[in-house]
Amino acid sequence: MYKIVEVAEKLGKSKTAIYNKLNENKGLFRQHLKKIENVKVLDDKGLEILMGLFGLKEIEIDIESNSLSSTSTNDSISIETLVSELKDRIKYLEEENKENKQLLNNQSKQLENFQILLLNEQKKNKLLEDNIEEDQNQEKNAASHLHGLAKLMHHFKSNKKRQD
Question: Which residues form a coiled coil (predicted)?
Fold first, then answer.
């Protein structure tokens, strides 16, 4: 097991570069990165994968024969490991993509429902405003009628006093 500081020294990279690669490729390192006493450590396979991601292995690709050849048997094994890990990473990313699509669909439905609710609330507010306006008009009419009645009563009282 290697501390991240040791890995950075071995590979001639900064700790930040190492952490960036680890974070970018979480699926690849899921089984190879551990935390021991609050210190992140990487096992041998994880170190090999990291070296491959940084391009620190000499790998030749024979395009015509469509096969991989390397400078040693260990490189061949590590390539197979890397390919296997990359396939795992692809599966992980496909699952993550599927989950993200589902989340996006759920959020779209929630947004649509929110828009419907908002529209309904706007309609309710419009009805309330219309009712308030109608009530105010009725109050004005009632006040106008009361004023007219008051004038009529005053006129009636005035006529009654003249008759008496």
Answer: 83-138
Give the chain's domain count.
1
Count of C-beta atoms within a 10 Å radius of residue 87: 10
Which tokens in the block code for residue 129?
Answer: 């405003």
What residues are paired with 88 via a beta bridge?
A: none
Q: Indicate if the alpha-carbon torsion angle 115, 117, 121, 126 is positive or negative.
A: positive
The SS3 of residue 112 is helix
Number of CB atoms found within 10 A of residue 25's CB = 17
Indicate whether 40 belongs to any domain.
Answer: yes
Asked if residue 45 is part of any domain, the answer here is yes
Partnered with residue 83 across adjacent β-strands are none
CA 106 – CA 26 distance, rounded (Å): 26
The per-residue pLDDT for range 101-152, each reduced to its tens digit, is: 999 999 999 999 999 999 999 999 999 999 999 999 999 999 999 999 999 8
Query: Does the residue 112 lie in any domain?
Result: no
- CB under 8 Å to 31, separation ≥6 — which residues? 45
**Amino acid letter, residue 57:** K
- Domain containing 12: what range? 1-56
Q: Are the C-beta atoms of 10 and 47 separated by less than 8 Å?
A: yes
Tell me if the pTM is above 0.85: no
* Alpha-carbon span 64 to 139, nearest angstrom: 93
